[in-house]
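Table 4 source record.
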Amino acid sequence: MSTNTCNNIVIYSQNVSCDIHSQKLVNIEEFGNKYSFRQRIGTLVNGLPNLFIDVIAFNEIRKQDNLQEVVRLLEEKEYSVKTYANNKDDMSFNNVLAVSVKSQWIIEKSFGRWVAHENGKPCLLPEFTLMEGDKYGRCAGVIYLKHKENQQKVCVVVSHVLPFGEVKVHQQDALFSINQDNLKGTPIPTIIVGDLNRFTEEEESFQERLNQFGLIEAKPTKLIIPKQNSDDIVLTDDENVGTFSPWPTDDKIYKTKLAQPMCESRLDVQLCTRDASMIMCSNIEARASMMCSPNESQPPEGVNHTRHILDCNMASDHIALIGTYSVSHPSMKAHAKGRLKQVKDLTWTYVGQYLPV
């Protein structure tokens, strides 16, 4: 793998699925010990795609021994690893940001920030904070990167919010608020990644709030399912592209989800500053991390074909997103702005350029 050139930055983000699922899977005969957290995370990290990745972002790692194993695996891949715990308990969820030591982007500063809602406004705070409706706290990992050659900066944020209720919206908005903070003074583009538990029925309001905070979603246009010793399965129909398909241990939703198209499960996202003169996503794809070969038999009646391919074969029940972003050097911003029409109060789909929908 070679380093990225120019001002490109490639970000791989994934919820690696917590140890509770692993404990349940190990006790099911058809899964067994190979689905322990250690085995799954080893398969996932060692199966990273054969392209240069500047930043790896993980969600949902619990217990210090599991976290240290993740750190060890990433350091073996020559990444500098930062971790961010929601709280001090060993069962706390941890987020991870890892930056390749071969990257053209170097770490300028890194810290954790807790989602908060103060005086009616969403924000991120430097001290541990509990938001009403969440008794554990949610920490965002924040890292500021600087390009080795031209000193251009970019902020990358990783987090994982609660799945339900008004508190989820407040936590999402708190994360979004860092983009507004980064646009004050000398502006710095922002990329926010992670499992934000965005449900299909919330799509319209989610996009409206992104607009309000000056953000845009980089939406994957294909799902890649790796195969051993043969060409990958590449699905490009929109209904086949999603980021979550549960294991049987998720008994409340397993059968329901298996019947739905993958587009009904886009929980994980990558977002960036909505200003093409600062940053643009040139490509983003969803990629499954496979423990076993895909199911290529005909699916049972009532089971979605794509979910059948993935069912019980992934190293995580969440699918990775891999986004490539072009960050503009300050001297290039005026040129880029000349190509971008001034727009207001519109919703956009982002596929490497701005298109009204």
